[in-house]
Design brief:
Length: 443
């Protein structure tokens, strides 16, 4: 009995040890499990917090070389990795593809900007189609946009001339204003070539449009406006019109008819509107020449005290048709003022009156031929002629002396006198104009 009681004590001790060990192991396991759970919860909360802090916005959506070109700014509080670009061709509903950017992750730090996203994926953008694009980050955050074709829906487009009345022979602007009133970004927005204009009136009207500026808008976001302009030269008689009609304003665009009309006005010269139309005669400063015999010189400085004659080209910008010319009077002259104010307090001009055309290689010293009144005409509508000056008085061949041209600087004017008529002997509208000439130096 005594030995059995001792065995029972040993067995009880062993079972106690086993129970205690099991309890300790269970408690340790439970604590480890709870710690792992806590770590998992903390990690999950951190990931949820990071995901909640992940924000980005599109700075630019473009198409370069028929490839997407997206600029993205990280506006959130954590770095971002873009791992997927999904593109759906909404013009073909069964077409959708996902692409992994190259390199596999495009990293954007907090506040950073990622450019050229989409340039390396194997998909080309067809400007005739519309697309839905979505970017996905490594945390699963996604954001997208749509790209519409100009032909997907009618846009708010206006066509107008500014100004819509223009003097014959002058330029006005044809303007096309395109507003993206759709919900998606438009890509490759550029106007269709202008068709031939139509005319009303005398039948002599003509319109000539220069190249459009700018040539293209690569993208046009919703609510934005694109402005295209053409410089158009319009010619004709008063009340003639020039009209552009466009049925497809944009390349690959929606069919919609636009129309703009410019009306021609003509510069008419009369006693009542000389001041209104002042400046119909202009000179070409680069054509200024002087000679002291032998050749014509192009610079603005000539030696003083030597017989000197001058030439200059003028343009007749009066747009009245019907064979009218400005027939020049012998009173037409070039006169020079010394910029130095003399002691006697009086500025005296040195006039050089119009003479007949001089040769390309004048004699030394030059010889002059007197100008016959109204013998030289400058055609209306942009005609030009070269004038020669050198006489001391109207209609004479006597050379103006240069004794008054002391060394110094001079400014000058051209005084144009004449009449607008169909012939040199006919009656017409008398006209006179002072043209600021240029500065010269007598050395």
């Amino acid at each position: 009995m005594k030995s059995r009681r001792g065995l029972s004590t040993v067995v009880g001790t062993v079972f106690s040890i086993i129970a205690l060990t099991t309890t300790v192991a269970y408690i340790s396991y439970s604590m480890n499990t709870l710690n792992q759970y806590n770590n998992t919860v903390l990690t999950q909360n951190q990931e949820l917090g990071n995901t909640a802090s992940e924000r980005f916005q599109f700075e630019n959506i473009g198409v370069t070389n028929n490839k997407l070109n997206i600029t993205v700014e990280n506006t959130g509080g954590v770095p971002i990795n873009f791992t997927k670009i999904w593109i759906q061709n909404t013009s073909a509903t069964n077409w959708m593809e996902g692409y992994t950017p190259t390199p596999p992750t495009d990293f954007v730090p907090v506040g950073g900007v990622l450019k050229n996203l989409g340039q390396n994926i194997p998909v080309s953008i067809n400007p005739a189609n519309s697309y839905s694009v979505k970017l996905v980050t490594s945390r699963g955050t996604s954001q997208g946009f749509t790209m519409n074709s100009p032909g997907s829906s009618p846009l708010n487009i206006q066509l107008m001339f500014l100004p819509d009345t223009v003097a014959s022979g002058f330029k006005t602007k044809l303007i096309m204003i395109v507003t993206n009133n759709s919900t998606g970004t438009l890509t490759n927005v550029y106007p269709s070539p202008l068709s031939s204009p139509t005319y009303t009136g005398s039948g002599t009207t003509s319109c000539s449009a220069d190249s459009v500026s700018p040539a293209e808008y690569s993208t046009l976001s919703p609510g934005s406006t694109a402005i295209f302009t053409w410089d158009v030269t319009v010619s004709g008689y008063g009340s003639d019109t020039c009209t552009y009609t466009i049925t497809q304003p944009l390349q690959n665009g929606y069919l919609q008819t636009l129309q703009a009309t410019a009306t021609v006005t003509v510069v008419q010269l009369s006693d009542s509107n000389y001041a209104q139309n002042a400046g119909v005669i202009s000179d070409t400063y680069t054509s200024f020449r002087w000679t002291q015999g032998g050749t014509w010189n192009t610079d603005w400085s000539f030696p003083h005290g030597t017989t000197t004659d001058f030439s200059l080209t003028i343009s007749n910008n009066n747009q009245t048709g019907g064979g009218y010319k400005l027939w020049l009077s012998q009173n037409t002259q070039l006169y020079l003022f010394n910029t130095y104010f003399p002691p006697q307090g009086k500025l005296e001009a040195t006039p050089y009156y119009l003479v007949s055309p001089m040769p390309a290689n004048p004699s030394t010293p030059p010889t002059l031929s007197g100008y016959s009144d109204y013998s030289q005409g400058v055609p209306n509508q942009g005609g030009t002629t070269t004038l020669y000056f050198g006489a001391v008085s109207p209609g004479t061949s006597t050379q103006q002396a240069t004794t008054n041209l002391y060394p110094g600087t001079y400014f000058g004017f051209v005084l144009i006198y004449g009449k607008f008529s169909t012939s040199s002997t006919g009656s017409g509208g008398m006209y006179a104009q002072a043209i600021p000439f240029m500065a010269v130096v007598a050395s």
